[in-house]
What we know:
The protein is an alpha/beta fold. The chain is built from 14 helices and 12 strands.
Amino acid sequence: QCAAVCPTGAITVASNLKDVWKAIYDPKKRVVAQVAPAVRVALGEEFGLNPGKNSIGRIFAAMRMLGFDIVFDTSIGADLTIMEETNELLETLEKGPGKYPLFTSCCPAWIRYAETQHPEILPYISSCKSPMEMFGAVLKEYYKEQDEKEGVSTVSVAIMPCAAKKSEAAREEFIRNDVADVDYVLTTTELIRMIKEIGIQFNNLEPQAPNMPFSISSGSGVIFGATGGVTEAALRRVVADKSPTSLKEIEYLGIRGFESIKVAEVPLGDKVVRLAVVSGLGNAEKLLEVIESGEEHFDFVEVMACPGGCIAGAGQPFSHRPEKEQRTAGLYKSDSVSQIKLCEDNPVIHDLYEGPILKDRTHELLHVHYKH
Ligand code: SF4
């Protein structure tokens, strides 16, 4: 089996391609997959589509041809992450300024870096699981009863832009009652390999929609794939004014784009919130130095290990700066045409919080305390 390598160089993991094929051919398995936001704007490049072209509909169609039973969009997991993470941000602001900000938690390479290099900041990293893990936990709960009735078991597969997600899925913290929230992670390039192996004419596919009932996600969830996307989505959730003008103002705060460290200040009630967005672990280190020394104070810091964010993950087709920029533009374009911009307006999210899966179980299913 071949191995996939994480950009930090810290994580090398075996491919799960054979396991996924085996599950697909096993009639006793229900193979349920989720596809990360960044995958849709890069996978098509291998089939001659322009970088940034959103091919999520074709990806769903190809995956059904490959034999995946059910396909979903991880952007729903991102919507859940923002719902939970902004609660933590508001609590942090309520407490008043401390030495450390609330750090984001959706990048597993960043978590690993903090665990090994900066254990002092671990209490300040959000307890939110990543979108992949949140959605994985929800999906395992959702199919539990149906599996028992039908005598099958659900295998949860995630298509992700990086190899670090494989190690994340295998962590003991994400295995509840001996059941993993996500069983296998395939990178974008591994999914491309499956599509090529079967000889699917990707460009000729008619786009398809994801399965019900998790078929709607917001634009906020989709922009998670770009550096600054988590912060922008969080701001949309916490500001009182949700008008198009206000959302435009957030867009122009300076948190979009490829600059390695971006800083913004946003008035929120009687406070001014200081935010930083950093991508690349070397840049995160620089930012941590000024935070540690007390030179700078922030309330919220988004960290992504890959420069540019997940669109540039090591599990994506190889890219240079122009392709990365086009992929990023593709995600923002998807957001701009999406009918639902805010995670709290997503009816699927409403139903989840009101329904039996998440009611009184948000802590158990959506949060994590790493054992290090
Ligand atoms: Fe993976 Fe890179 Fe995204 Fe982190 S930033 S989750 S390492 S693709």
